[in-house]
Write a structure and sequence with these properties.
By secondary structure, the protein is an all-alpha fold. Helix content is 65%, strand content 0%. Helix 1 runs antiparallel to helix 2. The longest helix is centred in the N-terminal third of the chain and has 28 residues.
Length: 83
């Protein structure tokens, strides 16, 4: 795989992580994006007619945001190594 394609993939990953962070901060501010697919837990029973409850604000603040920020830092290090 050429280096340019790897750089593009890492840049797209960073962009998607930044978009998820923006949605998380908006959720903490005003409650929008409550049903963003990135906030949904992995191991739940899925029902077609029932809605999944929005995530707890503490989980967003203490788990989701720090993990995405760490992933962005890691991706930026990879991008520096490639470039």
């Amino acid at each position: 795989m050429p280096i340019d394609l790897k750089k593009r993939a890492v840049k797209e990953r960073i962009k998607s992580l930044e978009d998820a962070l923006a949605k998380a901060y908006e959720y903490l501010d005003n409650g929008s994006h409550a049903h963003f697919h990135g906030f949904q837990p992995w191991f739940i029973r899925k029902f077609r007619d029932e809605k999944v409850a929005p995530p707890h604000r503490d989980w967003i603040k203490n788990v989701f945001i720090p993990s995405r920020e760490k992933a962005i830092r890691k991706a930026e290090k990879i991008l520096d190594r490639l470039g």
